[in-house]
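Late entry, written up from scratch paper. The run itself happened at the end of the previous shift, but nothing got recorded in the book at the time, so transcribing now.
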Amino acid sequence: MTTPSPKGMELKLLNIQRGIAAVLAGGKTIPLRGQATGDTVLGPMIAAALAPYVNVTNLRSSLRVGVEARNSNDATVKQLVHDVQIAVETAFGQGTEFEQFGFKPRKQAQALTPEQKQLKVEKLRQTRAARKTMGKRQKAAIRGSVDPTSGDTTNAAPTNGNQGNGGGSVAK
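Output as recorded:
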């Protein structure tokens, strides 16, 4: 014999409860476990058997409501945690007090080896050459000139010949 699902058993108990109210309420009895049983005995037995099913249904609905409330408040809570983290970091730095609030300090960047630094500079120069970007000195050295007879404009070449900004960052 297979075990019915909890939902199926709950429906059977609800149907029995309805049948008791409809049929046995008039004083009729049924033979149950060798005894004549009426609605006054069978009704509470079915209600007691049905109570755990109803309890689970109520708990599930409460859980669903609670999860929805928690999820709707998620953005506000994340912002609050972020604000507290910034305030603690501002007040105490990233030391032991910061960690006592449960925050992990940011990892420090690993120091680059000379080979890695050289590779970084080479990549920077290749990128700047490919994009034809210039530093602020090279941009400032460009002067346009206007030919008064034709009205054409031309750009003068940079005068110092420096094509990089010494490996500094480029504003975008």
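The first strand starts at residue 30 and ends at 32.
(Scratch paper discarded after transcription.)
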